[in-house]
């Protein structure tokens, strides 16, 4: 489904959805470059992925790091980049009265700034055609108590995908976003949300369970591949029915 030997860059590829995506790409015969800030976590992930993976420690919110990431990717595999998955992201509880400007800015800087930096830096290194996938969230369209920064950041990601798509369509570069609902990944550890709480949330998911990371990866693979060649500027909901089905 994915171009054999395609080169894909996945930011935040050391964990959760990013790692599952890298794993799936490798199993389809692609070469993958993963990035993240924690060197040990990244090295372990790269080891699991095998010889068709290359890891670069890089902060996705740093334009300099992103430039270095693509230089390293192209230098290592000696080819242009076919697929970019701007996946790196964080989630924080930010109750309005208790959240500092720095805490708010941090969420926006990683979830929006990093996506912008990831895409902008990729442009000189892209093959044609190329596919860019931005990882947004169901939260883009749903106000959530104590998550205003996260929700706003993901709404911005959906919007960025549409404007990038408009700007790059004449250059044979497609850009789409994907909006997972609840996926069972380590992101909830950082929020202090337990597995038991996650399972409790399942009651409001029409499919009655969170997604497995590989189920989100399968949809990212679709957007990365030629199977979605007539899609650009779209947002793909992969949420067990949460956005489309009324709870009543
Ligand atoms: N899990 C869900 O329910 C869900 C739902 C909707 C959307 N999403 C979105 O899916 C994406 C992946 O989330 P996940 O659930 O897979 O989370 P995760 O398991 O916590 O993985 C996040 C990844 O991003 C990396 N990362 C974070 N900040 C970074 C930065 N500044 N620069 C580079 N890498 C960075 C992390 O590595 P380091 O910490 O080492 O940098 C890690 O590899 C996020 O954008 C998230 O908002 C998740």
From TrEMBL:
Q: Name one GO biological process term.
A: fatty acid biosynthetic process
> Does Oxidoreductase count among this protein's keywords?
yes
Tell me which residues make up the Ketoreductase domain. Answer: 6-185
**Which keywords label this protein?**
Oxidoreductase
Q: Which GO terms describe its molecular function?
A: oxidoreductase activity, acting on the CH-OH group of donors, NAD or NADP as acceptor; quinone binding
The answer to whether the entry has keyword Secreted is no
Which Pfam families does its entry note? adh_short_C2
SMART domains hit by this protein: PKS_KR
Entry-linked InterPro entries: KR_dom (IPR057326), NAD(P)-bd_dom_sf (IPR036291), Sc_DH/Rdtase_CS (IPR020904), SDR_fam (IPR002347)
Q: Which SUPFAM superfamilies match?
A: NAD(P)-binding Rossmann-fold domains (SSF51735)
Q: Write down the CDD domains for this protein, in alphabetical order.
A: SDR_c
Report which superkingdom the organism of origin falls in.
Answer: Bacteria
Q: PANTHER family annotated for this entry?
A: 3-OXOACYL-[ACYL-CARRIER-PROTEIN] REDUCTASE (PTHR42760:SF133), SHORT-CHAIN DEHYDROGENASES/REDUCTASES FAMILY MEMBER (PTHR42760)
Q: What is the name of this protein?
A: NAD(P)-dependent dehydrogenase, short-chain alcohol dehydrogenase family
Q: Which organism is it from?
A: Paraburkholderia steynii
Q: What is the lineage of its organism?
A: Bacteria, Pseudomonadati, Pseudomonadota, Betaproteobacteria, Burkholderiales
């Amino acid at each position: 489904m994915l171009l054999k030997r395609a080169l894909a860059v996945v930011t935040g590829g050391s964990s959760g959805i990013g790692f599952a995506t890298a794993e799936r790409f490798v199993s389809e015969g692609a070469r993958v470059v993963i990035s993240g800030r924690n060197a040990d976590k990244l090295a372990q992930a790269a080891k699991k992925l095998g010889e068709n993976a290359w890891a670069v420690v890089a902060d996705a919110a740093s334009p300099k790091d992103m430039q270095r990431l693509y230089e390293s990717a192209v230098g290592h595999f000696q080819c242009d980049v076919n697929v970019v998955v701007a996946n790196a992201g964080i989630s924080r509880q930010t109750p309005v009265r208790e959240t500092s400007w720095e805490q708010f800015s941090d969420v926006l800087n990683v979830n929006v700034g990093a996506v912008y930096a990831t895409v902008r830096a990729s442009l000189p290194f892209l093959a044609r055609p190329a596919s860019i996938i931005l990882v947004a969230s169901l939260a883009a369209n749903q106000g959530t108590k104590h998550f205003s920064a996260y929700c706003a950041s993901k709404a911005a990601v959906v919007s960025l995908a549409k404007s990038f798509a408009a700007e790059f369509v004449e250059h044979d570069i497609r850009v789409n976003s994907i909006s997972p609902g609840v996926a069972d990944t380590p992101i909830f550890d950082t929020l202090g949300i337990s597995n038991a709480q996650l399972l409790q949330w399942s009651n409001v998911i029409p499919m009655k369970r969170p997604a497995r990371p590989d189920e989100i990866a399968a949809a990212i693979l679709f957007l990365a591949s030629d199977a979605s060649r007539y899609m650009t500027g779209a947002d793909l909901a992969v949420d067990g029915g949460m956005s489309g089905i009324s709870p009543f």
